[in-house]
Amino acid sequence: MPAVSKGDGMRGLAVFISDIRNCKSKEAEIKRINKELANIRSKFKGDKALDGYSKKKYVCKLLFIFLLGHDIDFGHMEAVNLLSSNKYTEKQIGYLFISVLVNSNSDLIRLINNGIKNDLASRNPTFMNLALHCIANVGSREMAEAFASEIPRVLVARDTMDSVKQSAALCLLRLNRTSPDLVPMGEWTARVVHLLNDQHLGVVTAATSLITTLAQKNPDDFKTSVSLAVARLSRIVTSASIDLQDYTYYFVAAPWLSVKLLRLLQCYPPPEDAALRSRLTECLETILNKAQEPPKSKKVQHSNAKNAVLFEAIALIIHHDSEPTLLVRACNQLGQFLQHRETNLRYLALESMCTLASSEFSHEAVKTHMETVINALKTERDVSVRQRAVDLLYAMCDRSNAKQIVAEMLSYLETADYSIREEIVLKVAILAEKYAVDYTWYVDTILNLIRIAGDYVSEEVWYRVIQIVINRDDVQGYAAKTVFEALQAPACHENLVKVGGYILGEFGNLIAGDSRSSPLVQFNLLHSKFHLCSVPTRALLLSAYIKFINLFPEVKATIQDVLRSDSQLRNADVELQQRAVEYLRLSCIASTDILATVLEEMPPFPERESSILAKLKKKKGPGKLPDMDDSRRSVNGSTDSTHSFTDVLNLNSAPSSGANLLIDVFSESSAPPAATDVSEENFPRFVCKNNGVIYENQLLQIGLKSEYRQNLGRMYVFYGNKTSTQFLSFSSSVSSSDLNVHSKAVDPVIEGGAQMQQILNIECVSDFSDAPVLNIQFRYGGALQNIAVKLPVMLNKFFQPTEMMSQDFFQRWKQLGAPQQEVQKIFKAKHPMDTEVAKAKVKRHKSLCRDSVSQRLCELLSEQF
Amino acid sequence: MPHLFIFLSCFLQIRFILIQNRAGKTRLAKWYMQFDDDEKQKLIEEVHAVVTVRDAKHTNFVEFRNFKIIYRRYAGLYFCICVDVTDNNLAYLEGIHNFVEVLNEYFHNVCELDLVFNFYKVYTVVDEMFLAGEIRETSQTKVLKQLLMLQSLE
Do the chains contact at A170 and B131, CB–CB below 8 Å? Predict the structure, then answer.
């Protein structure tokens, strides 16, 4: 029988809980609960004022009922009343109810805040803690408004008890997360940092968490915490176990505090001060040394606690990325863990080594473990461990081991868990492209991917192989031959048919000389798969067929017969029917010259970034992808180090086979772009520049060239007709709520392939926030097109610089110190930033700056990295 | 001098703590992040589904949505802490164990029923050791001393 303590009995509650547990059915339970609810309701409404004990008991029962999963719509008032009791047990239940059943009734909120206020001012540490815990648990805006300024005071006051300080620190942390604007840290910063020196390690623990969070937003303000943290950490790791009795856990000194201190240090770069830096290095070495010592206990708690500190120390070493000896030692330690009998440790070692792989100091050391990792891939029984092994292989891959790693990953793919196949496919595709010296290997790898895991080969992957084959003359023949052979397999994946159809359609002529792959053989091979394929693939095959007609006149009749068949001409699918009809007609009426022109070989794709990497990042989520080295190979094979991963190929602009061709030749088929959405895709790019392409789709390109002087602006809008057919009834207008925009009328016709210019005169009469919208309409083929584009006319375009000396500038800047004059907006970047790249960019920019102010700003910025 | 603020991603630490039995009944749910009641229910079910299929050959860590769960089974109960992906797995694994040892001491060989009948006290224990999504106190001695003191109050 569970012990019911003497302090608060609440027998009634225990009986009620027993009753519920004894209910044989859900209905019985509900019946019992309803009975109790009715009882409590009547007690609460009753004439007799309830005593504290009863109130507490009933509120507790209500809480229990809620936690069972039933809605409670009363009791809040009574719970709030409990706050004003002077008995701990009653207050505790009241606070608990409020924290669990948060209510947004403003009267209640006022009363709750009142109760909290009284408890905070009570000087009773138990009550103060109850109040602080409530604020920390609820963390509402109203509470922040009421108490955010009071709590720092409690935290640093000399007579505050240790346990209250602990709670105050974390309470402040919560408020800072939910309502950062209401927490005035400024004057408290130094005192909060000083808490790291407190003699109560619980206070230090809480303070470290608080400082870590605050330091992430304002690292400069909390810079002084670094030396204190190092000193503290040093004292802990070198302490004899007798020193930290209360905080020694299975013979490990203050493991959680150590981990937190190491985390705090990860908010900062390696210390500049040499003495401090060496003290920290000593600390880290001590931690690494301890890992090698014989364990003080056989218990897993001991090794987990010790290794928790070790892994965090390694994380710091990796973060600093500045001490080669430490990095190599870390790598070796992790290498040992790779073969530990505990799965947890093998998992963590694989994970940690992944980050080590991207450091230039330890990359080679990591590679030495390749065989072990490959073995892990084959033998680990927990799929998440195998996944870490895959990640690590990917991270350690470079030119020297790419072929082997890709081969291992392909072999693993054959039996891999379905849930991780797509990720492995993407990774293999990226590696194959990145490290291909010989593109035949690349083509083989992708075809293997399709063969092994065709379902998981996404469009980005096979589009990419097509792009690469199109762009590289030297691999076209090989691709045609290989794809031809692969298609011979009795059951091949539809993605292979797509790739094969496309490549043979373009380059089938390169293997047509051999009788085993003559045009007719190729056609029959493709057509044998036709009926097994889905509509989009069949559409692609039809395009391949018309290309064959162009390439191989000898099979023209055969193909025409196929196109002519009822199953094509009367196909239920509109696209297929259309293609069959139109290709057939084309083949009949077009002369060989015209046909050759229409079905000319695909031109090389322009240099673009691979969308495969973008897809992988999206899959993995933030923070999980190891950094690959920056230079990316473009489609044309040259190393292109200026592209960042953020410019990715928009999937919609990847050409599907022949679709562009169709638009050019046949007039009715284009799908009109979305009529009602205002495009603002490229809008942000124009904040700092005035010229460029603001909008583009398959039919139309709109470019801008603008100039501004004082409050006037002139914008030249260039409309480019990307098709070979006229745009008719062309009209454009600008709508603006705040600016005066005058536009000269435009010609209603834009010839195919031609560009037309329109001048817009813009006048800014007062400050504004909405940008003007350009509305365009025209007829293409038979269809009416409607496009709306946000024009990049922003307030900053009308700004004018003022010259002044740098002292004057900084003087004025400092004057803007009042709270309403300062605004800081903190937002998450859409794309992860590679600090090295950013640092380099800033350094480059600095060398371009003429004035000392900009140079100094660049310096400051690069220091932050 | 003007300061330039570089904002590193700010991660919440603990998202929630759950104690569930094998059948899926929740014995404790402590949330450190805002969730609707529906979302909470869904999370509880998902967590249960994810941890109960694992056995000794698996690690004590599971990727879960954008987070991860560190868990350990004690007899018929699963203790799960949901933390951020960059958090220290072993630190939280032992954080759980530390918490369980305190419960064990406080309830004198704790069993599931203790957590049911004294559910309101379990919250007190939790709040002593974890607060605002962070570890608050790790000394078992200190925590137990405090709990016993609170126990004696009216």
Answer: yes
Residue A846: per-residue pLDDT: 63
Average pLDDT over all residues of chain A: 85
Distance CA A847, CA A860 (A): 14
Residues A215, B152 contacting (CB under 8 angstroms) = no
Amino acid found at A756: M
Looking at the DSSP bridge assignments, the partners of residue B29 are: B18
pLDDT at B114: 95
Distance (Å) of CA A185 to CA A79, A171, A182, A196, A210: 33, 14, 9, 16, 11
The more confidently predicted of residues A12 and A632 is A12
Comparing C-alpha atoms, which of A778, A715, A783, A709 is closest to residue A743?
A715
CB atoms within 10 A of CB A181: 10
The Cα–Cα gap between A801 and A43 comes to 73
Rounded to whole angstroms, how far apart are CA atoms A730 and A748? Answer: 4
DSSP characters over A142-171: HHHHHHTTHHHHHHH-TTS-HHHHHHHHHH
Binding site: residue ranges of A?
11-12, 43, 53, 57-61
Encoded tokens for A605: 């794709």
The predicted-structure confidence for A167-210, as pLDDT tens digits, reads as follows 999 999 999 988 888 887 788 899 999 999 999 999 999 999 99
Q: Are strands A639-640 and A632-633 parallel, antiparallel or unpaired?
A: antiparallel
With pLDDT > 70 as the criterion, what percentage of chain A qualifies? 88
Distant-in-sequence, close-in-space partners of B9: CB < 8 Å, separation ≥ 6: A216, A622, A623, A828
Res A861 pLDDT > 80: no
pTM across the whole model? 0.73
Tokens encoding A865: 């990295």
Residues B152/A88, Cβ–Cβ less than 8 Å: no
- Closest Cα in chain B, distance from residue A8 (Å): 7
Q: Residue A750 has what DSSP assignment? A: B
Residue A239 has pLDDT above 80, yes or no: yes
Residue A243, helix vs strand vs coil = coil
Q: How confident is the model at residue A608 (pLDDT cuts 50, 70, 90)?
A: low
pLDDT (tens digit per residue) in B131-143:
999 999 999 999 9
CATH for B11-148?
3.30.450.60
DSSP string, A397-417: --TTTHHHHHHHHHHHHTT--
| Angstroms from B122 CA to nearest CA on chain A | 11
Which 120-139 residues of chain B touch chain A by CB within 8 A? 120, 123-124, 127, 131-139
How far, in Å, CA of A80 to CA of A74, rounded? Answer: 12
Mean pLDDT throughout A548-556? Answer: 91
Interface confidence (ipTM) of the complex: 0.94
Interface subset of A 355-394, CB within 8 angstroms of B: 381-382, 384-385
Contacts of B3 in chain A (CB under 8 A): 220, 860
**Out of A22-31, A48-57, A668-677, A710-719, least confident range:** A668-677
Does any CB of chain A come closer than 8 Å to the CB of residue B74?
Answer: no
Tokens of A86: 């002077």
pLDDT band at A660 (very low <50, low <70, confident <90, very high): very low
Q: Which residue in A109, A113, A54 sits closest to A62, CA to CA?
A: A54
Given a cut of 60, is residue B9 above it in pLDDT?
no
Q: Tell me if chain A has a CB within 8 Å of the CB of B53.
A: no
Give contacts of A 664-723 with B, CB under 8 A: none
The span from the CA of A721 to the CA of A739, in Å, is 29
